[in-house]
Amino acid sequence: MLKKVTQNHSYLLLLLACIVSRLATSIYYIEDIDSLRFALSIEDYDISKLQPHFPGYPVFCFIAKILFLIIGSKAASFSIIGGVSVFAIIYFILKISKIEINNRIGIFCSFIIFFNPIIWLMSNRYMPDLMGLAIAVACMYYLTDKSNNTKNLTYGYIFIGLLVGVRLSYVPLIIIPFIFHLIKNDQRFYLFLSCCGGCLVWLIPLIYITGYENLFLAANKQTIGHFTDFGGTVLTDNNIYYRSLKLIRSIWADGLGGYWSGRAWQTGFLSISYAYFLYLGYIGSRKYLKYDKSFVMIIYCIVLYTLWIFFFQNVIYKSRHILPILIIVFMLVTIGHKYISEPKAIIYNTFVGAFFIALVTVTFTLVNQHKNPTAVSRLKDSIVLGHNNGTIISTPLINYYMKRHGVQSDFINVEDEGQISRLNSSEKEEALIIGNFQGLFENNYSIKNETTYFHNPYVNRMWPRIDTYRLYKNSDVIKE
Prior knowledge:
Shape: globular
Structural class: alpha/beta
């Protein structure tokens, strides 16, 4: 009894630590276009306006909206969801690994997840990814637990239904156990109804708010666009080598904080440490879990999900898609620590201590940088402070970002040939170009470099560098 009370206290302390730490690192600006759509959804939820885009993430947006109405801060609302999600991820990974939190292995596992760089960054972003990961890990626990009792399976199928309303793209992660139990379990009809119930909780209100026809049109447009128009899938970016390289970089460098060209020396030490821990995990899994059906099923789930994102998700420009793959990394590292490591060895403990220091250093550096505005946010601030009411030439997404932040300008879309043609034949004397689009303009214009905005791409892969240029009519070029 005392042991259980102590364990409950440990979980309570962990939950508080997750929430408080994430609140302390909240971000108070809109860092990219995806975050903008979710921030707008808190004020005016409308899928037809892409606030947010389909599938609407209604469960996530509903919880964020409730927290916002109570707290009055978008940043704090998203950070609280992030903090609770981190706690849930740690809780269920410990449950899957059959590890108690208040021993050395539980502390080790909790530490590497709590201080994981991409998990911390995502816990502060205005995005549903981390909440989706928490629900996906819960599904995995309930659907792969060895007992496979009806109660646990029911929870698992309800969570699947909720997952669709939080992060639809994570569903392939748990499709194998989902199908397996529907085929093998005698209660398949009841389990299927449980999944439907989890879906109907959010689907009925979503249809009521959006309208069936509008929801269908949004679903059709966004689904087609995702695979064929928006970029990032194998249908639009089909260089297999390039996709493979970006996927590896996303897992190793963005996901684990490992070394990549141009990164700090601490990331090199993290790489060596993780390689060693994964090696121990591989030995431990081969020796003790080779015939563990639950563990094998989890591996199959991760393999299928990896194939899914490799071919059909934007792994080139958005590293956050690799989050579920980290589940197996955390499990392997923990397995090695549980079965193979020598807890009393001085050299090993020194190695672990140095690893923790490097991990905390890398993560805190990224988190502190994350609190500063991204390149596009600083560009927006510069335009607003400069009271630029002239013409801005850029991509539709950047133009949209500027408009929704109140920038009052005449916006020209570089993808609209008609607009570019009219500008080239117009008498407009000056304009601001955001991005490298100098080749679109004829000889009657001159272009001068203006400002370049940066942020660390390991904080956010979207628009880490933005170049701006000033466009002048030749007769009005300012001589240097």
